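Both lines are given unchanged directly below:

***
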Amino acid sequence: MGKKILIVDDEPDVARVLKVRLTQHHHEVVVASTGSQGLRLAASAQPDLIILDLMLPDMDGIDVCKRLRVDSRTSRIPIIMLTAKSTDKDEIIGLEMGADDYMTKPFDFDVLQTRIKTIFRRVTDATPGTESKNVLKSGKLMLDGDRMKVFVANKQVVLTALQFRLLKYLMMHPGRAFDRNQIMDGAWPKDCTIVDRAVDVHINGIRDALGACADYIETVRGVGYRFRESES
């Protein structure tokens, strides 16, 4: 079944090609040529995915991503950054701002389509009703796998779909230390290519969201990370 996808890109040729190809895959496509227009459409159209260019005429795509993530109406919409910038630093900055994936121009549509399928599969895997009741608790922290919600001291906190998946993976193995490769193997879809520093970026994002429970995710020097032993 097709999804609704918002393209935010000021290059008419790129936007046109993406719209045609995605429509051929039965997706409904909405196009914005500026960051401000993209923000408005994201809030009103409620797309299932946003493909966001980094270089926009009115504001930086990083700023657009940041605003999408702090708006409760758009905070959980997956974002793929599509940009001409190709350094690891650029990718890390994009991930830090809340992007779920990052691709550089020129791009291969088949690769992009694979990334899109991966994101939709990831979201489906974490959608309420797709698994048996799964509630994980530790101290003031509770993760509800059925409703895809996380609470700290009974107050809901917002995580991206990938951050939710990563936190759940660690919480399912309290006290066990994982290196970055193990975390990527366990929490990332198998066909998703990322840099290993992305693990650190998402861990930091989870810690920021957890606030008072940030120290529940412990850094293991020389290894990676672990979720602390569950409290009784």
Summary: The chain has a mean pLDDT of 84. The radius of gyration is 18 Å. Residues 135-227 form a domain with the Arc Repressor Mutant, subunit A fold (CATH 1.10.10.10).
